[in-house]
Amino acid sequence: MKVLGIETSCDETGVALVIDGAVVEQRVATQVEHAEWGGVVPEIASRLHQRALAKMTQDVMQAAGLGHSDLDGIAATHGPGLIGALLVGVSFAKGLAVAHRIPFIGVNHLEAHIFSPHAAGEVLPMPALALLVSGGHTELFRVNGFGRYQLLGATLDDAVGEAFDKVGGLLEIEYPAGAALSRLAASGDPQRFTLPVPRTEQPFQFSFSGLKTAALRLVQSLEGKPPQTWRADLAASFQEAAVTQLIVRLDRALENEWYRSVVLAGGVAANQLLRKRAEQIAARHDIPLFRPPLQLCTDNAEMIAWVGWKRLTDGCTDPLDLEADPNLSLAWDDLSGTDHSRGGIEIDIHSRAVKKKRGATS
């Protein structure tokens, strides 16, 4: 079973080929053009995806020694993400599907991140606790199986990856700032500055806006002092506060319910301090921690192709009128119920009933 995967949700163009559940070829192009703007410019991202996709797809297929007619399916991210960028990938995939009479599979980007260890050849024991952390998402899920998710908590304001980028900008680190900020923090004192780790009304909620504001005020108070005397310490103190908040919620969830595994997913899952602290927490609870290889933490087509392959082997495809959805959810439960310790009800995102419900609420 051969499935081509296409990823264009933000500023990485990815193409990968999965055969019988194993990644055999992949290409990725990172758009460095956004650095001068301090963030992703949607129009630029869309145009760069358009320029890169056809050539990258050709390279992947030629390297595998296959033609498009040899494919059993074509999968593309259809949400969430930047609407223009998503449309480029979805439209390209649909065009290939029509031209070669191949099934089309729309992939939820969040689901793909959670199952990124599978694209690396690992298998998550279920139920799993998934911490999804990126530039656009900070969410905690109970994963009862493929397609079956229960949202435990999410950020009330900003995503942790966005906070890393914004504080990195305050420290004059070029976008995207997360990796460089962490390298700077390695030479700093995380105890020099006290930055807030907020308490939230519900136990698995997150909040990073106050941390960003505190970092801004601290930088303003240090103006006039040589940056070499405080810059690394501030980076380390910020990283310590951000990671501590994530780990506190992760530990709390493991104490609240029984799980067979923990998985870190998303771009911030590449953060070495977070990976180390999560490993310590998982070891304390005596369950395995799954951390995708660094190249599978950021946006990539391997995870898209794997989920597309999984859905196809389960007999699931999507109609060609499936739309790109920038606000696509993995679980849209209302967390305002009285039993905050358990979050929302389980959602099976691949069931027909859920698809009808999703359409009715969009």
List its salient traits.
6-stranded mixed beta sheet, alpha/beta, Nucleotidyltransferase, domain 5, about 350 residues, 5-stranded mixed beta sheet, 2 domains
What would you note in describing this structure?
This protein has 2 domains: 2-116 and 295-330, Nucleotidyltransferase, domain 5, CATH 3.30.420; 126-291, Nucleotidyltransferase, domain 5 (2-Layer Sandwich). The chain contains 11 helices and 11 strands. It has helices at 42-64, 83-100, 109-114, 116-119, 160-170, 178-185, 209-221, 231-256, 272-284, 301-313, 352-361, and strands at 2-7, 12-19, 22-30, 73-79, 104-108, 128-133, 138-145, 148-154, 261-265, 289-290, 347-348. It is globular and about 65 Å long. The protein starts with a strand and ends with a helix.
Number of helices: 11
Q: Using the 3D structure, state the CATH architecture of the largest domain.
A: 2-Layer Sandwich
Give the overall average pLDDT: 91
Radius of gyration: 20 Å
Termini, distance in Å? 33 Å
List low-pLDDT spans.
333-342, 352-362
Strand order of the largest sheet: 10-9-6-7-8-11
Give the secondary structure arrangement, pairings included.
Elements: E1 2-7, E2 12-19, E3 22-30, H1 42-64, E4 73-79, H2 83-100, E5 104-108, H3 109-114, H4 116-119, E6 128-133, E7 138-145, E8 148-154, H5 160-170, H6 178-185, H7 209-221, H8 231-256, E9 261-265, H9 272-284, E10 289-290, H10 301-313, E11 347-348, H11 352-361
Parallel strand pairs: 1-4, 4-5, 6-9, 9-10
Antiparallel strand pairs: 1-2, 2-3, 6-7, 7-8, 8-11
Helix pairs in contact: 1-2, 5-7, 5-8, 6-8, 7-8, 8-9
